[in-house]
Amino acid sequence: MSLILTLHDIRDRHREQVGGKGFALAQMAQNGMNAPEALCVSAEAYRLFVDANGMREQICMELNRKPFADIRWEEMWDISLRVRSMFLNTPMPIELCEALRGPLKSTFEGEAVVVRSSAPGEDSSKTSFAGLHESYVNIKGTEAILEHIKLVWASLWSDRALLYRQELGLDVETTAMAVVIQKIVVGQLSGVIFGRHPNDPFLAVIEAVYGLNQGLVDGTVEPDRWVLDKKTGLVRSHNPALRDKIVVPATDGVRLEALAVGAQSLPPLDQEKVGKVFDLCLKAEKVFGSPQDVEWTFKDNTIFVLQSRPITTASSAESDDKRPWYLSLHRSFENLKALRKSIENQLIPEMIEEAQTLANVNLGPLSERQLAEEIERRSAIYQRWVAVYWDEFIPMAHGIRLFGQVYNDSVHPTDPYEFMKLLGDNEMISVKRNRRLEDMASMIRSDNQLAAALRAGKGPQHNEGFHLALDDFIDQFGDLTCGTDQCTQGRDAMINFLLEMAAREPVKASARPQEFEALRDQFFSHFEGDRRAFATELLELGRASYRLRDDDNIYLGRVKAQLDRAVDEGKNRIEPQRKIDSRSFSAEDVVHVLKDVNFIPEETKPEEKGDTDVEVRARQLVGQPAGPGIGKGRARVIAHSSDLMNFRAGEVLVCDAVDPNMTFVVPLSAGIVERRGGMLIHGAIIAREYGLACVTGVPEATARIRTGDELTVDGYLGIVVIHAAS
Amino acid sequence: MKDTEELKKIIKDLLASQNLAVIATQREGQPFANLLAFAATDDLKHLVFATTRATRKYANLMADSRMSMMIDNRQNQASDFHDATAVAAIGRVEELKGTEKGDFMKLYLSKHSHLKAFVTAPTCALMKLRVDRYDIVRRFQNVMELWMTP
Description:
The complex is a heterodimer of chains A (726) and B (150).
Chain A: E1 4-6, H1 15-30, E2 38-41, H2 43-52, H3 55-63, H4 73-89, H5 94-108, E3 112-118, E4 135-140, H6 142-154, H7 159-163, H8 165-168, E5 178-183, E6 189-194, E7 203-210, H9 214-217, E8 224-229, E9 235-239, E10 245-249, E11 254-258, H10 261-264, H11 271-288, E12 292-299, E13 302-310, H12 323-328, H13 333-359, H14 368-396, H15 398-411, H16 429-445, H17 448-455, H18 464-477, H19 491-502, H20 513-524, H21 530-578, H22 587-595, E14 620-622, E15 624-627, E16 630-638, E17 652-655, E18 671-674, H23 682-690, E19 693-696, H24 701-704, E20 710-714, E21 719-724
Parallel strand pairs in A: 16-17, 17-18, 18-19
Antiparallel strand pairs in A: 1-2, 2-5, 3-4, 3-5, 6-7, 6-12, 7-8, 8-9, 10-11, 12-13, 14-21, 15-19, 16-20, 20-21
Helix pairs in contact in A: 3-4, 4-6, 5-6, 13-14, 13-21, 14-21, 14-22, 15-21, 16-18, 16-19, 21-22
Chain B: H1 2-17, E1 20-27, E2 30-40, E3 46-52, H2 56-63, E4 66-72, H3 80-83, E5 86-95, H4 98-111, H5 116-119, E6 124-138, E7 142-147
Antiparallel strand pairs in B: 1-2, 1-4, 2-3, 3-6, 4-5, 5-6, 6-7
């Protein structure tokens, strides 16, 4: 089998070897359609690559760390990042390199190309998963093409592809990826024609933009839209776009620019060009025997076909399928910049104001019914902000990923998470909050009289400065104990926690200015000319993304604290009246009881015990390495937020999910173990800030580990060892 | 002489054909067996394997460096009784350090390249079994011993 074929070499028997995209291009070229010159690197080349370096087994190991059903989408991103880094850092075998280098050089010498994925079965009529794998535009030079072929291969295991692994039939042993390398046609106008309107088989749809069609495909440039009669080609309707942007080739890749004013008032296609696009669509339909989605571009009035794929007949996604939402998290650079503005200038200030307005309400004078209504009102406010969190704040975190990908592509570091060192700083609210706690703890540490007075429960007369600092802290960050059953103890619980902090050596979040500067300069050195400005802006965006990812939770926590304050007030009223333990009551339960004195919330059933003859204990649990280091200590399992106040210095924090509002105990801890997985989750971020060992994505962490168990947290390999049961 | 060379070849072929071995360590008289990836030096004097330092086997070996490693080529068929070969290597283990570690690491990774991230992690120890003796079992009960000179 040839490792590389021209479009005219490809026959029916090569279909599996060259993938859907490569095969379709060959058919178009062989039927006289104007397709840019291209070569197909066969799937066999991929196989040679992954088998030559033990990579196949490494990919298997990455994918089998735990059952697929337990892998969250964030962890899929981590897996794909590590696989991508593996591909980037593994050289191609010499014989493979030589087999590809010659044809690539003779065909594309001095030309810019697009390097596209062409996975077998990717574009069949039953499955169309456009965008799950990568394509790279405007690549120049044989060595750069070879490098990007590896990146396209790696995208066989992209997070998006992993989400759809069942539909794609992804299997490390058998699946392979072909690659199409196509001469770039720098078109002045580009777009897609959909050979059949999704709601009406008698209509076709054209979407067109100025410049290259990357902007249309990734959603950064809004297209003009024409709906045509499929039979006659006559235009039924035209929806003009707000034409203000254009994607053009840049030194390396593409760039988004403002559209020239003259073009803004003109649709990209006139009547004649609409006709040419429609003819192209009919021709493709004839070649392939079914309606097609066709990508095209106009260069100097000549139309080129870039790719064609059948319209899928697969039914639309189930309504509870969250995967389209996950896919939507892949935002473009421009989109993220706009999102950042909206979060920083609008959403966060609004959230702060909302929490402050709620904090100003005196709950004491409210009647029980009024209090119940106030809890309901606060629940609704909180839910509204949770929705904003999912729709706006979580997508913003993609800025970290985007930066990570660009960093790894340019720097090729051995550690695929090296880029995180450029993102972390001490400016996150949770780190600032922890620094304030540390300052108060050091006041206690250096003043024995103060420590003794606090232990004896004496008031402010013994150290006014400390008490003022504490009041100021509670004003700014809220009472950490709120939302726990120690909220009623308020200040006293905070003082007990600070006494615990004072009992051990001070801890500081790591500051690494020199390393930061060296890494930043190294990163920038890979970008020249106008690309340097892009790199600077991207780093800034990545840092904002990183900071906001933590901060937005703190602010959301403030709104939640105001809901909790009202719920705690309700519980305080219920308990003396009803003489019941309301600690486990939800907000809804409290509302019910306040409104109806006879209402009894359902008790949660105790778990049924299984076989009592045998006992299962975990000795070693595997998760993801999320914070390099090794930590040893007794486990403190956080089942309820109230457990946080019992946290002792030197313990290992074991929990379902670290929330930034919980991270005040992190400086006290010897390590972190979290059920929820991912490198960019809060536990991992804060662990890195403090240089603590952290393992995330341990599915049974809170079920298998008990408070008091002796643990070793291996943050290099993602292993938690349970040495002795409590 | 001929016997020695033949025996050496059988052992060499077996060690080259297998990726995994079972080791036995002990603590306070309690034996403990583990399955792990190994590699052998060309002169058969050393077998190398990796473990993280938080494991029981590592703790056992730190307390008592004596160890046995079993390598076999059974197929889980009845024919194993006449066809399979099993070798038990007996000796003492030490953790590799310095330049020696680099050489053994190369050897280990040439056989298990997919374990690079594991074996290069700071928490992972590369261990060397200095073999005193091999016991070779063939044809069900035929047992030969190959004593290694230090």
